[in-house]
Amino acid sequence: MFDYKLLEALAAVVEQGGFERAAQVLGLSQSAISQRIKLLESRVGAPVLLRLSPPLATPAGQRLLNHAQQVRLLERDLGQDLPMVGDEQGPTRLRIALNADSLATWWAPAVADFCVREQMLVDLVTDDQEVVLRRMRAGDVAGCVCATAEPVAGARSVPLGSMRYLAVASAAVLGREHQGLRDPAAVLRILPAVVFGPDDQLQHRFLSEIGHKGDFQHHLCPSSEGFVRMLCAGMGWGMVPALQIQPQLRSGELCEVLPGRHVDVPLFWHYWRHGGRLLEALTRCLIIQAPLLLADGHIA
């Protein structure tokens, strides 16, 4: 049988990004956490952690983390059904990965009422929409929002709608660069782009669709808010969710470089198949709320 105190230690180290913070969360010494991880590895017969900064779960560790998270959620259900066999329940913390643009736009309005009603606390991990599924595969999270439809083993995937991205730049910069240019697309070859991070391929995709191949100059800005600020300041052009920049579009502070051209990115919610009633209820909430909120970004 599993010793769930050992699994708890493993989950804390991965979720908190290190042994010291895991020890603080669990109210133990760092040495005690280290001993529990070593004992778990001895019983499993394989390493469960890569001692990096931050520590990463090995394939064996990932399977144990997946199991531990699902047990945590199922114990919540059991405690509700049989309160006499469980401890007094407080808020349930759910670790979720999602792309930064969803966090900056529709996510909070979609889940706010649900979190209050279900006493759910969220521990959010953000990354580019193309790569957050790695968090599920690594056993780091119980659910994620990403652009990939195919779920990992043991999980389900449901479509939420699509996020519309517009190629925009500041009105002042566009007015300056458009002078003497017959082809508006040529502006994109002159201005540097703003790219969220190494995994962000939206700008590449948009340029490819208008016939531009190869490399291009770009800034890197791993912040949704900072991304928009850089565009408003005239530092380049970039692909931004229409939901995020409605005020700037209405005021004329930002303008579409090629009006009518956009990129729609489908979004999917992934969650563990045996994650208990809370995860199922959150899924139903997202299926209803996300498409309504995402549709606001498709208004012409």
Measured as a percent range, the helix fraction is 40-55%
Q: CATH superfamily of the domain at 163-264, called what?
A: Periplasmic binding protein-like II
State Rg: 22 Å
CATH fold assignment of the domain at 163-264: D-Maltodextrin-Binding Protein, domain 2
Q: Classify the beta-strand content into a percent band.
A: 15-25%
Structure summary, number of beta strands: 11
Overall average residue pLDDT: 86
- The CATH level-2 architecture of the domain at 163-264 is identified as 3-Layer(aba) Sandwich
Question: Structural class, judged by helices and strands?
Answer: alpha/beta
User: What is the terminal-to-terminal distance?
Assistant: 58 Å
Largest sheet: 7 strands, mixed
Secondary-structure element string = HHHEEHEHHEHEEHHEHEHEHEEH
Q: How many separate helices?
A: 13
How are the SSEs ordered, and which strands pair?
Layout: H1 4-16, H2 19-26, H3 30-44, E1 49-50, E2 56-57, H4 59-81, E3 92-99, H5 100-104, H6 107-118, E4 120-127, H7 133-137, E5 143-146, E6 155-170, H8 171-177, H9 186-190, E7 193-195, H10 202-209, E8 218-220, H11 224-232, E9 238-241, H12 246-251, E10 254-256, E11 262-272, H13 276-295
Parallel strand pairs: 3-4, 3-5, 7-8
Antiparallel strand pairs: 1-2, 5-11, 6-9, 6-10, 6-11
Write a short abstract of this structure.
Helices cover 45% and strands 21% of the residues.
Features:
13 helices; 11 strands; Arc Repressor Mutant, subunit A; D-Maltodextrin-Binding Protein, domain 2; elongated; single chain
